[in-house]
Specification:
Oligomer: single chain
Mean pLDDT: 91
CATH class: Mainly Alpha
Number of helices: 8
Helix content: 55-70%
Number of domains: 1
Bound molecules: protoporphyrin IX containing FE
Low-confidence stretches: none
Order of helices and strands: HHHHHHHH
Amino acid sequence: MRMILNIVVLGLVLAVTQAQAATAPKETLFERLGGEPGITALVNDFVATVAADKRINHYFAKADVPGLKKHLVEQLCAGAGGPCTYTGKDMKTAHQGMGITTADFNALIQDFSRSLKKFKVHRRDQSALLALLTPMKKDIVGKR
Ligand code: HEM
């Protein structure tokens, strides 16, 4: 009798654990963005938007687009808690001498936000991503 009871209890515990695993929210921002494939899709869309944005696309006329995308994916992946290492230049060095203004910076952030909305990133996660990027402004804007 005791044995049967133990088996029933074990079965119940397993069922509850499985149900929890199925409904538990994805733990990290990286996971919620769909891992590296999700972030890559987001970056592709974002870079396409920037390339079509007449306010700022002149900055990217001679850009190494595949290299830029690779580094953006790494940067977002690492920032979102994913298993990536950013291998590009630091933000100050990467944007040095470009004379990027606050208006340029805001335009780029607006383009990024458009991609976040298009990919239906949760509002809370949109804020988390923007909170990752906005502190970089001081290293990007006004570096002549
Ligand atoms: C938070 C905002 C920004 C982030 C996170 C960011 C990130 C990056 C990254 C990761 C790179 C590649 C560095 C490397 O390959 O070593 C890069 C390069 C570059 N960024 Fe930004 N950037 C931002 C804002 C801007 C803005 C506002 C502009 C201009 C409107 C801009 C223009 C460029 C250009 C022209 C390059 C060089 C691309 C190339 O030559 O291949 N960035 N940025």
